Amino acid sequence: MRDNNEMPGHLARRFQQIAVAVFLAEVEEAGFDLTPVQYAALSAIRTNPGIDQVTLAGLIAYDRTTITGVVDRLVQKALLVRHASSRDRRARELQITEAGKRTLRAITPAVEAAQRTMLRGLTEKEGAELMRLLRKATAAGNALSRAPLRDAELR
Amino acid sequence: MRDNNEMPGHLARRFQQIAVAVFLAEVEEAGFDLTPVQYAALSAIRTNPGIDQVTLAGLIAYDRTTITGVVDRLVQKALLVRHASSRDRRARELQITEAGKRTLRAITPAVEAAQRTMLRGLTEKEGAELMRLLRKATAAGNALSRAPLRDAELR
DNA sequence: TACTGATAATCAGCATGCTGAGCAATATCG
DNA sequence: CGATATTGCTCAGCATGCTGATTATCAGTA
């Protein structure tokens, strides 16, 4: 039996665990209170104003039931507004607020710093190679999770 | 602003998301109901009978407060027993049951298959390189999370 | 021995993430 | 047009994971 610490699954969880901890630490140090999901959602909504929740979920590869709660909390923080779509009364259109835009701009350096911190220990070349391999592996396994990454244009 | 999908943090979460989905699918197909954490804990306890919860948490890099619930559920499933230590009345000694050992043996092929599935899309060499880079990155970032990996002998 | 600090475990509370179900609205097809 | 299927969203329920606090116990020291 292979040692648990040598399994890809364990290493994946461990790297993700460190990545989240680093993200939250950098963001808090910068004076903000935003989780990785919340950041990803806010960022995607800024790029795609008026997007509905299902499309948003696909863009950042989150489950749609998870997005409901995430959007709730972003609305609570007044970084987003959510209102019914006029074309499809089932859908909710998401718009970033001015406060949301300000937060995104102000938080970006901390987010970038976090990305560097989580790769510390790797050389520049190794970091790039890790990214390439993760992109390749996640592309191949995309359909295996309930929340695959989806291109907005393909919808 | 860098696209979210190009950030190490996003790729880390995505790979972990796929890894968990693959693990659960393979394990369920084999007729078992065990999560990745539960498997890791059970496996570590078999190797270290009588281990206490804090040491267990360190061995598999989980937060001690998370382990409480995980152990609860494993005891519930009769795969573990938990009883007070005689030397230290604060600590609980964990022992794997016969049913736990049988489950571990029977589930191993599914777990190994899951590890291969989550690396599908990568060549043999790329898979090994990904593992090496993840090991290096997690070793460098080990202390950054609240639940660092800890060697049992160092305690 | 009494005091002080550290440690093992648990708990409350919050935020992800998932499965599966349900509701309302829309799209499709006979 | 009307039945049926599909879609957007939400909810209940469960399991991770985390922060911070509390309780019981142990260890070291004045």
UniProtKB/TrEMBL annotation, chains A, B:
Organism this protein belongs to: Bradyrhizobium valentinum
Describe the location of the HTH marR-type domain by residue ranges: 8-139
Q: List the protein's name.
A: Transcriptional regulator
Q: By its UniProt entry, which SUPFAM superfamilies does this protein fall under?
A: Winged helix' DNA-binding domain
MF terms from GO for this chain are: DNA-binding transcription factor activity
- UniProt cross-references to InterPro entries, sorted A to Z: HTH_MarR-typ, MarR/SlyA-like, WH-like_DNA-bd_sf, WH_DNA-bd_sf
Biological process (GO), any one: response to stress
